[in-house]
């Protein structure tokens, strides 16, 4: 019932910037936190950044100072502004949202994943 649609990926030169967006739709009572993960070929998926419903943020050490996560709760949208991109950050970036929904007479907190958006950083 909950769907995440990511956008903003693409090809960028090293040192360039991209802004990713993820819009959640469906039966959402509350979004608890939103985050971005990435997975490069042959590597494990890693957390890039996360933002809570009250605006607290945390980042992977490798992106601190360069990436900024933000959200628009009214629009169920999370953004990731990526600056000074490096070639090693080429990966599929996934939106992740933990949301509470009401179903079968109870509230459930579940994680949802977007399909991913490709970010390619050229040297």
Topology (elements, then pairings):
Elements: E1 3-7, E2 10-13, E3 18-25, E4 30-39, E5 46-52, E6 57-59, E7 67-72, E8 77-82, E9 91-103, E10 106-113, E11 117-122
Parallel strand pairs: 2-11
Antiparallel strand pairs: 1-3, 3-8, 4-5, 4-9, 5-6, 7-8, 9-10, 9-11
Explain the overall architecture.
It is a single chain. This protein starts with a strand and ends with a strand. Helix content is 0%, strand content 62%. With 123 residues, the protein is mainly beta. It is elongated. The model has no long low-confidence stretch (mean pLDDT 95). It has strands spanning 3-7, 10-13, 18-25, 30-39, 46-52, 57-59, 67-72, 77-82, 91-103, 106-113, 117-122. Strands 2, 4, 5, 6, 9, 10 and 11 form a seven-stranded mixed sheet that branches. Strands 1-3-8-7 form a four-stranded antiparallel sheet, with no helix packed on it. β5 (46-52) and β6 form a beta hairpin. It has no helices and eleven strands.
